Amino acid sequence: MNNVFWQILRAVLLLFVQIVVLNNIQLFGMVSPFLYTLIIITLPIKMPRNYVMLLGCLIGCVMDVFTNSYGFHFAATVLVAYARPFLMKLFATRENMEKLYPSYTNFGNAFYYYAFAMVFLHHFCLFAIEAFSFYYIGLVLLKTLCSSVFTLILIWGIETLKIRRK
Amino acid sequence: MSQLFRFLSRYNHFILFLLLEVIAFTLIINRNDYQKSVFSRINTQVLGSVSSVTSSVADYFSLKSDNAFLAEENAALQNELLRLKSSKNPVSAFAQSDSAFAFTSAKVVYNTVNRFQNSLILDKGSTDGVRPNMGVVTPQGVVGIVESVSKHFCTVISVLNIESRISGKVKNSNYLGSISWDGKNTTVVQMEEMPRHVEIKMGDTIVTSGHSAIFMEGMMIGTVIKAEINENDAYYKVDVRLANRFQALNYVTIVSFALRDEYDELQKTTINE
Questions:
Q1: Pair (B41, B81) in one structural domain
Q2: Judgement on whether residues B158 and B187 belong to the same structural domain of the protein
Q3: CB within 8 Å of chain B, chain A residues 130-159
Q4: Residues β-bridged to residue B238
Q5: What is the pTM of this model?
């Protein structure tokens, strides 16, 4: 029960940081990180997929409300929620999958690969919907790459802090 | 039913995913102006290309009726053209009495080319005003002459008939000759009675003379491909390549001459005397 409480608190905190701070970041017109993807990334491994998707839908809706867009974050977050098990199986070993949460301590370096894949997919979906045309595909990919790398750096920072605290 | 439930439970993740994404994209397309405009543009494009494909397929089914319609229209336009011509130039109308000719389109329902006496059957008969001795042409050239008429059909003596005689002339010099067929080559007819003093050479155009009051003057018959004369002969041997392809006749036009009876009457009295 305690665990669930911390999870919720963490999710709210991440959303808060995303909305208040990170939404205002626009580096070189290329980098706009969406750290809130980390909520989906670090949900319990055994959590039923439908719950993950519904949660993703909720988080996406919240983000849409605060960024004044309709359905962008909704679509992207539901997509990564659906794709989560595939990507996890792709990078994590069977041993890793027995653990409770995906994290650096549980997965090792595989966690960053998995996190990057999730973030990349999410950002790509988001920017692609924003552009909504194959004409901008090059720009979309570049923007996705820059923003994903930046988001991954943030995730790496958070994971490192967690380990230090322990 | 149980299979359906098994299917649903097996793919429940995917179904939920699809459902949520459909909701998301409905929102995206309906509520964001830019995405809405892009979507409607693509939609129009797709719809347009799909309907153009389906209509191009559907067009084939109406080809037959379209053809018939076009043939009818052609005949009507030819009539109109003649009427206009004659009203514009009353002198020539009087001289050639072109306005006395009328056109009816008809479909070839039977056609032979491989006999000595070739004939055609057309789908127009006495109810359509077709009568014997009317001319039959296509835009390319002369086909033949109506021989006998039933209520809804008529038979046509083709140019490719050894009995057939059509009055023709060389287009530029206006020398008259008689067109007949020797029964050998279905693309070549012979022109007889061309006297020795006439200058005729390969490539000359042969047209109808208009003297028999069956065809109008100047309808294409063919082009000269051979003109020979021996020292003792009085007449040329002229081969004419037909402008029409008789193997591939489909729609033809029947030419009717309104003053036919008057003409025949006059001719009869002259011969009797």
A1: no
A2: yes
A3: 132-133
A4: B191, B227
A5: 0.50
